[in-house]
Write a structure and sequence with these properties.
The protein has 20 helices and 15 strands. It has 481 residues and is α/β, with parallel strands linked by helices. The longest helix is centred in the last third of the chain and has 18 residues.
Length: 481
């Protein structure tokens, strides 16, 4: 390998966020670059106390700056950093990728600090963009015709190149976790949990999700044998306690999922793992699949329910039935597999009484196992989804209208305009009591609170939540959770 100073430097930035998932998007595009030709510098704002200064220094002599961008606070940080770099180095190409640029390429390119955006799957697109910029002396105009990318010309015109076909992940190089300090993420998480992505895309059509807009309901996954080989090597290096599969949907291919579990069982399952599972997928799985989930040490699956209202499930194109949810939960409980069940309240034109229907299903699930958890979120119209487009077509004034507007968007903890304060308060109280009614009870205080919480949930009595207020005052609102 040539000396480091002879390699072309590429700087990649992961913006500030409130979670500590490893920057897998940056790792995958960096892993696709020829390391004998390129020096890759990854700066994660969550790890660096002065990340912007570090980027500004690293960008000196670099070929380009690449930034992965999520909607909300990460977008705000990405915008601030990009503007600083633009002011310091006006000729340095700045390329954005990730969910927000994939959904709003033209809007992102209206800001002078952004030269180009990678849309959707980025490994080969970024690699081609790097090669074009290197060959042209960093001229952004050289990106014309690069599939999967949009850019702004010197005259300010936005050019949308053709779409790039989805590439089989097995054709791409292995993930190189040596690109960032894995141990520091373990420390921040408080456990040796490795984030790993084994597939991209999702074939389903949920109307509230942006994935169909980006991946066009296509899916590609790494073969089970390769997954096992990579994860076992990572376990040997890092002594993993758990692998968190960060796929949009892991169980798309039953054959692949079963081969993965068989491989873990054969090797003694040295770590636990978590993944995503749809209720209708689970309903088509026989008992042997759930047995293998338990034997391979699947600690938890995430099963999106979204609503306890059959009418609303049809409206949001979830394409599941509540009976499938209960059947999936029953099988998980029987085989010692934990589960998290997310629900969403506050959809536009939500049917009267649907929130109470949701709470009844959430209670039914919570009773089934102390390893089960229900999470209730307020609907926020994520860009690119069918629901978002319908609101946009109707001229809804509540939607963000500019790149700056999207910097304050919070699709996790915000309360959408269709969720009243009273509805939000009801949901927060229910979550508190449901957690303590059927969750683990480690102390006498937990056991006492559990009896009170069960009574409240069984009688749907959430008024005057004195226990909740007392606990929050004494211990902090989240310490008991």
């Amino acid at each position: 390998m040539p000396a480091a100073e002879t390699r072309i430097k590429i700087v990649l930035y992961n913006p500030m966020a409130v979670f500590y998932t490893m920057p897998l998007a940056l790792m995958t595009i960096a892993s696709s670059l020829d390391r004998s030709r390129f020096e890759v510098v990854i700066v994660d704002a969550r790890l660096e106390p002065d990340a912007h200064r570090r980027v500004l220094e690293a960008c000196r002599g670099a070929l380009l700056l690449g930034v992965t961008v999520l909607t909300g606070k990460p977008l705000k940080d990405a915008l601030e950093l990009s503007r600083k770099v633009r002011a310091a180095q006006p000729d340095l190409p700045i390329v954005w990728g990730g969910w927000h640029p994939s959904l709003f390429p033209t809007q992102c390119l209206t800001d002078p600090a952004v030269d180009a955006v990678v849309i959707g799957q980025g490994e080969q697109t970024f690699q081609e963009a790097v090669n074009r910029l290197m060959a042209s002396g960093s001229k952004v105009g050289s990106l014309e015709g690069c599939p999967g990318l949009s850019f702004r010309t010197a005259e300010g015109r936005v050019v949308n190149n053709p779409e790039r076909a989805l590439i089989d992940l097995n054709a791409l190089p292995p993930h190189d976790y040596r690109l960032f300090p894995v141990e520091r993420y373990f420390a921040l998480k408080g456990r040796r949990q490795l984030d790993y992505i084994s597939s991209q895309g999702c074939p389903y059509r949920c109307a509230f999700c942006a994935d169909p807009a980006v991946y066009k309901r296509r899916w590609t996954g790494i073969d089970a044998d390769r997954m096992l080989e990579e994860l076992m090597a990572l376990h040997a290096r890092h002594r993993l306690e758990e692998v968190a599969l960060q796929d949009e949907l892991f169980f798309v291919s039953r054959k692949r999922a079963e081969a993965f579990m068989d491989g873990l069982i054969a090797q003694g399952s040295p770590f636990t793992w978590t993944a995503t599972l749809r209720a209708d997928q689970a309903s088509r799985m026989d008992v042997s699949m759930f047995e293998k989930m338990g034997r391979s040490r699947c600690r938890e699956v995430l099963i999106g329910v979204e609503s306890g209202s059959p009418e609303l499930l049809k409206r949001i194109a979830k394409d599941i039935k509540l009976e499938q949810v209960i059947a999936a939960a029953t099988r998980c409980a029987e085989h010692g597999v934990g589960a998290t069940f997310p629900f969403i309240i506050g959809f536009p034109d939500e049917p009267e009484g649907s929130v109470w229907q949701t709470l009844q299903v959430a209670k039914q699930l919570s009773r089934m196992s102390p390893q089960f958890h229900v999470k209730l979120f307020s609907y926020a119209p994520y860009p690119g989804s069918d629901l978002y487009r319908s609101l946009e077509d109707a001229g809804n004034a509540q939607l963000p209208q500019s790149l700056e507007d999207w910097t304050s968007f919070d699709f996790v903890s915000s309360r959408g305009p269709w969720t009243t304060a009273a509805k939000q308060e009801l949901v927060e109280r229910f979550e508190f009591y449901a957690h303590h009614a059927w969750g683990e009870r480690r102390t006498p205080l937990h056991r006492l609170l559990g009896r009170v919480a069960r009574w409240r949930c069984e009688h749907d009595e959430y008024r005057f939540p004195v226990e909740k207020r007392l606990i929050e005052r004494l211990r902090g609102p989240h310490e008991m959770a």
